[in-house]
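note to self — DONT lose this again. spent like an hour looking for the file last time. sequence + predicted structure for the chain T wanted, 159 res
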Amino acid sequence: MEKIYLGKIVSTHGIKGEVKIKSTFPYKKKAFRVGNHILIDENLYEIKSYRVHKNFDMVTLDDYHDINEVLFLLKKNVYIAKEELLLEDNEVLDEELMTFQVLTTSGKKGIIKEIFLASPTNKIMRVQLDKEVLIPLNSPLVKIDAKNKEVLIDQMLEM
């Protein structure tokens, strides 16, 4: 089973056993669905409720209904099994994208060296072509072909 990092439990919320998860995972709505299972310290927990509150993902797990029952989960990393995500064909995780080949409309080939967040909504790829360039991942000039494992970049973005 391949596990994917979702985030970290940073605190509890209220007295009814809800935990607060800090996550930058792009497919949160698929990961934190009620009924899905998450992994914490190699133990499986079922998600009983999910909501977003002030940039945090608020989750209740299994049959924990009291703050004292979930204190042992604080500061723990949260993972999900890749099979449970049910991603569409055009949805690609950053870890997979790092293995894709970069092709430009002018025929250059390259590799993705790094993907990072420039802001909460903008991802940047550090791509090695002839020289290293930074390319916004959400640009309309960047096309991701998940089937062929390629990232196609319009020549206008090349330097």
